[in-house]
Amino acid sequence: MEALLGLFGDEVESLKDWLPLLVSIWEGRSFSDLTRVTQWIRRRATISGNTVLDVLLDKIGHDLRNGSAESRKRAARLLAEEGYSDRRISDIVGISRDTIRKSRADAISTSSGRV
């Protein structure tokens, strides 16, 4: 995780919630691979004018779709908290929109039940 903190530089604050997920997705990759990927993400964000998070999500979307269900659910939860639409979340993580809506409704009913 410390390696990713250094590689993302100034953008690390906006990605802090994503770091545990990135660690699990990129587990087993060499430092050289991580350096190459993060430099590509930062460069692409600068050139395209998109945020680092948007470029990161496009880059890791394939890894998320092939990852564990828990990783996809965690990513969907983070994306929903960031304000992404259900359709965009579905495109990125590979979970159906109905499932995303259901988990959001379950989360709301659980949180309202705790009050």
Describe the structure.
This protein has 115 residues and is mainly alpha-helical. The protein is built from eight helices and no strands. It has helices spanning 2-8, 12-15, 19-25, 31-48, 52-65, 69-81, 86-93, 97-114. The longest helix is centred in the middle third of the chain and has 18 residues, at 31-48. The radius of gyration is 15 Å and the shape is globular. The relative contact order is 0.10. The mean pLDDT is 84.
Weakly predicted, low-confidence segments? none
Query: N- to C-terminal separation?
Result: 35 Å
Q: Beta-sheet strand percentage? A: under 5%
Taking Cα atoms only, what radius of gyration do you get, to the nearest Å? 15 Å
**Class by SSE composition:** mainly alpha
**How would you sum up the major sheet?**
none
Output the keywords.
115 residues
Summarize the structure.
With 115 residues, this protein is mainly α.
Blueprint (SSEs and pairs):
Elements: H1 2-8, H2 12-15, H3 19-25, H4 31-48, H5 52-65, H6 69-81, H7 86-93, H8 97-114
Helix pairs in contact: 1-4, 4-5, 6-7
